[in-house]
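Aspartate--tRNA(Asp/Asn) ligase
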Amino acid sequence: MKSHYCGEITSKNLKEDVTICGWIHRRRDHGGVIFLDVRDIKGICQAVVNPDQKDSFKLAESIRNEFVVQITGKVRKRLEGTINKTMHTGEIEIEVNIINILSKANTPVFPIDEYQEVNEDVRLKNRVLDLRRPEMNERIITRSKITSLIRNFLDDNDFNEIETPILTKATPEGARDYILPSRVQPGSFYALPQSPQLFKQLLMIGGLNKYYQIARCFRDEDLRADRQPEFTQIDIEASFLDEEEIMKVSEEMIKKVINKFCGDKLSKFAVLDWQDAMDRYGCDKPDLRIPLELIEISDLVKDEEFKVFSDPAKKKNSRVVALKVPKGNSMSRGQIDEYTKFVSKLGAKGLAYIKVNDVNDIENGIQSPILKFLNVETVTKILKKLDIQTDDLIFFGAGSESIVNLSMSSLIKKLGEDLSLYTEKWAPCWIINFPMFETNSDGDLTPLHHPFTLPKCSSKEIKNDPENATAYAYDVVLNGYEIGGGSLRIYDKSMQETIFEILKISKEEADKKFGFLLKALSSGCPPHGGIAFGLDRIVMLVTNTNNIRDVIAFPKTQSAACLLTDAPSTVEKAQLDELKIESTHKED
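Structure:
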């Protein structure tokens, strides 16, 4: 149907007869001559319809934006003064001989021929139109190319692409499973995989040595801007490789992606201990482009009469931190109030601050509502510990560790964005030495990653002191986003049984849920480990958007709904009867 893509015709094709197919991006009528900008996956080309081509001209008069057309004509050079140097095809145009309208279109609900901010619900409801927008076209094609590069890289490193089941068994991996009923076994259910975790371990026990998969994963959890109920994971596992070797191959892969698609060379990946990251940045996903850190001052304020500081400074699992903002003194009271509202939404009770007008004049050169509650000696020590200079600003966080860490780490990222504090384009890092467990709201221990992570201690040691056990776990963070996480795996049956015991999983329950794994571990299991990368997040960063839905062809909303197809939806009663299921849901 076509001889060339629209976006690939250049001055090299002058005087050639060509046929193009695509959508009408824009139609313009200039003094009896009609210009048609025709768009396809490769770009846009201008076609010119003259009145002497009567049939084609008459047809061109009826054409509107987003009609699908086939155009045949001769390539010619644009007139002087009409060349568009911003377009790849900007030096040429097609003199039209024949036009065929392949498909007509209603007026688009939002413009595609020029960029406009469009409500996301409208975009998702009309996703086929949204995908036609050049920026969306480019993101989805870039995603495909990134996937291809990663496949080639892993193939070249002797990894084997192996598919694992989508219909599987429910296992606890930190989120809710999506459950599917079995028609042929009434009362029994499949679960969609949260990850291929156990199957890739079984592949290692099966002697496959190196595995990867571009895996579809499903988690029925509360959503955030960078989360989806179904997502794509670059899943990697290898036998007889240690922590450093897995991290090395992962680094090489990410460096290739960034270099190929962004033209940048990543610097050396920083390596941070988990506890160090939590102390300095309040989170295990720090954005190292932002030169701001939390400084612990609990020891300086624990004896103050100001209980907002002294109480948490004395309590276990609480902290008092200070955050220096260099040259932040110019910040208005209104801006500070906005940041106070911001941290309050994250659980903080407020946001104390000190403005430093003259660091050499403690009595008159600093201002803050909290100064009347603090000793001058304490203020002096704080200024010295933070190496404060004139015109700096200090923010304070005080309270439980969880709230202080969440609110202050979020404040660091917001300040970095609002004040353009970024010192570099890319800042990758590894976070290592994660705790093996964390305490949930019921006071019980739960795995920080998953229960198959190898601890850095013996079974006896972890039984005696599980709260302080660390794991062979590692996350890779890029510009404040966790793009991958992995660990070495337990390869000894008795250690796996010990972890289940600590997690209060009885032997009967362990056998019921994980009997197949325990049996496999008894058959001769090699040391192994792996990592999983979030493909969606990587593409989001590479294509310079902050919304993960921009890089997924047909995403869900934050309520896990597809506005295009109206999924999820009810089903006929006959289908439920066949599955031996009855819905107890009552419509509002």
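Residues 290-421 form a domain with the Gyrase A; domain 2 fold (CATH 3.30.1360.30).
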